[in-house]
């Protein structure tokens, strides 16, 4: 199935958004003045948010909600309900029925 340009661009923008947020962790290690670090952090946050939401707009609200749930750290360690065991019924007689 051929993906359209909106889907590919949306995924790319969300990926760029993640990279921008990860880059914030490196800002304190730059050898520049404190004001430049504050400005760089602010710019990275704003650009990260803008690219995320533009990418989400291109992908659509359903897919954006799915990715946002994956990226939410509050949901990473929640216990998921165990799958229910399904009892399979067979038409063949069991051992006890044969005797």
Features:
99 residues; mainly alpha; elongated
Describe the structure in your own words.
- This protein is mainly alpha-helical and 99 residues long.
- It has one domain (5-75).
- 61% of the residues lie in helices and 0% in strands.
- It is built from 4 helices and no strands.
- It has helices at 5-23, 34-59, 61-71, 95-98.
- The protein is elongated, with a radius of gyration of 24 Å.
- The protein starts with a helix and ends with a helix.
Structural classification: mainly alpha
End-to-end distance: 56 Å
* Residue runs with pLDDT of under 50 for 5 or more positions: none
The whole-angstrom Rg is: 24 Å
Strand content: under 5%
Number of strands: 0
Helices, by number, come to 4
Query: What do the pLDDT scores average to?
Result: 81
What is the count of distinct domains?
1
Largest sheet: none
Q: Please give the share of residues in helix.
A: 55-70%
Order of helices and strands: HHHH
Shape: elongated
Could you outline the blueprint of secondary structure elements for this entry?
Layout: H1 5-23, H2 34-59, H3 61-71, H4 95-98
Helix pairs in contact: 1-2, 2-3
Concise structural overview:
With 99 residues, the chain is mainly alpha-helical. The protein contains four helices and no strands.
């Amino acid at each position: 199935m051929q993906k359209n340009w909106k889907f590919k661009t949306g995924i790319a923008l969300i990926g760029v958004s993640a990279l921008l947020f990860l880059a914030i962790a490196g800002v304190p290690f730059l050898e520049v003045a404190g004001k430049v670090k504050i400005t760089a952090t602010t710019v990275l946050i704003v650009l990260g948010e803008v690219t995320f939401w533009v990418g989400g707009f291109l992908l659509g609200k359903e897919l954006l909600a799915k990715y946002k749930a994956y990226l939410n750290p509050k949901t990473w360690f929640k216990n998921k309900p165990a799958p229910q065991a399904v009892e399979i019924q067979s038409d063949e007689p069991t051992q006890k029925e044969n005797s």
